[in-house]
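Q: Structure tokens for this one, please.
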Amino acid sequence: MGCHDTPDSEGRQMYTTYYCSKACQKTEYVRTHKYACNWAKNRRAVYRVGDIAQLAFYAYSEKIFDVSITKVEKQEGTLYLHQGNNDQNLLLPFPDKLFSDEEEKLAALTVLAYDNALGFVHVLVEKMLGGGY
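A: Here is the predicted structure, written as tokens:
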């Protein structure tokens, strides 16, 4: 697995190093690369946990959706969500058809389901990274 295809701290792919000989490569590995490679593997694992947590957040937010959205408007880059009543606090189907693209849908889910889903995702990420309660 190694550090191949691991993003750097800014999300860019790491570079490949070429060596003049096996002896030179081994010297560099023992001196510095071993530690940098382990750091890169850990970073790749954290990025993966982040990707999975984000997908879980959106899926969970959509399943526990309880906001009655009647209209969606986009004006000058700002998304306006018009809400109706949900006096009975029922779970509602997410109104996919009101959004023009996936980015708008995810933005609405993030804003409207943030409080409920955040606790769930926090526990998920903690468990995925090996922590307990």
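A few notes: The mean pLDDT is 82. The helical segments are 22-63, 102-112, 114-128.
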